[in-house]
Design brief:
Length: 215
Amino acid sequence: MIRKHYENVKNTIGDHVQLCIVTKRRSTEEILSYYEAGERMFAENHAQQLKARAAELPSDIRWQFIGHLQRNKVKDIIRLVDCIQSLDNLPLAQVIEKEAAKAERIVDVLCEFHLADEDTAKTGLNKEEAVPFIKEVLKLEHIRVRGIMVMGPHTDDEERIREVFNEAHELFMNLQKEFGNEIIHTLSMGMSSDYAIAVQCGSTLVRIGTYLFEE
Ligand SMILES: *Cc1c(COP(=O)(O)O)cnc(C)c1O
C-alpha cells in the first residue's frame, strides 16, 4: 500500500464517492493491504483473473468486472461478481440473465458507454442507444441495472477530459429522469490519471489501480 496515495485518493473523493480498487497484475499481499485498511470493492478485467483472485481472497469482497466480457466466460464469474460494470450489448445481457437464473441470483450491472474516442472505441454503447438498450435490459429478471460506466479519453488534455466527463454526467442525469435514481444510481467514472476531474464532474464511483500501487 502506498499510504500517501491512498490518503490523497480518500481526501479527494470524500465520503460520497465509492472507491473501486483495480487489482489487475497486483499480488495478493498488495491487495490484502487495502482489504485490511477496510476496502471491500475490488475490480478485475479478465474472467480467469477474477476467478483466481476470488478463490484466494476473503469472501466479503465485492468484485467488480470491468473488462470486455466474452459470453462464454459469464458462467465462470456469475457466482463471484457483485457487479458487471461493462455491459454493452444485448446478447451479453441475455447470457448474463440465463447464467444468473441458473445460479439463482440477481446480478448488478452498469451499462458501459463510449463518449470519447468515438471513432476508435471498440466497446461501449453510444448515447443514442442508451434508453432503448436500458429498456430491454430492464425486462431481464435476474439483472439489476444500477447505472453507467464511462472511460475518459486517452489524452493529457484536461479540458478534453472535462468535456467528456461533463457529457457523461449529463447522460447520467437524463437517464435518472427517464428511469429514476434507484435504477440509475451509479456513475462509474475516473481512473488514476483523471479521477480528480471525474469527481468534480459528478462521478459516484472511481476505479483506481496504478496510482494506489505504484510510486
Ligand atoms: C485498468 C482499468 C482501470 C484502472 O486504471 P489505472 O490507470 O490503473 O488506475 C479503470 N478502469 C478500467 C476499465 C480499467 O481497465
